Amino acid sequence: MNLLVAAGAVFRDAGGRIMMVRTSYKDAWEIPGGMVEDGETPSAACEREVREELGLEISVGQALIVDWAPHPTQGDKLLFVFDGGTLTEAQHSQIEFLDGEILEYAYVEPARLTDYTLDRLAHRLQAVIPGRTRYLENGRPPEADPRPRSPGTTP
Fold first, then answer.
1. Which residues pair with 22 in a beta bridge?
2. Which residue, 62, 85, 80, is CA-closest to 10?
3. Where is the signal peptide (predicted)?
4. How many CB atoms within 10 Å of residue 70?
5. Residue 85 DSSP one-character state
6. How confident is the model at residue 33 (pLDDT cuts 50, 70, 90)?
């Protein structure tokens, strides 16, 4: 099995909205983050990606979501979403799009995430319960998927 591992950060504003970033290479908006490199932990990858994409030095908090996301053409993915906390005014003023991947960012109400991003990421972010780590499959709790599950098969 060829497993891809990715990590992203959820930043919220004082009103509970989630930071989404528009990239130069995708139509759908994303959260800051990216692929975990060989020998790198998911939390270190998340911090590196935030540094590369936003120019911010941060330490991520706990893992909020661990999501198993099989895909027939892109390969199976294990996705980690970490708590990035709430950025200060000083941090907002330091945001720079250093690597050219990010074009802009916006804070989005959780109920409006599907207007900005793919359903599976919207479901993943809407499943966040602050202070808890949740396990998901394809952006949803396993018990919410009505398809039968058996060893050796993916939903």
1. 104
2. 85
3. none
4. 16
5. E
6. very high
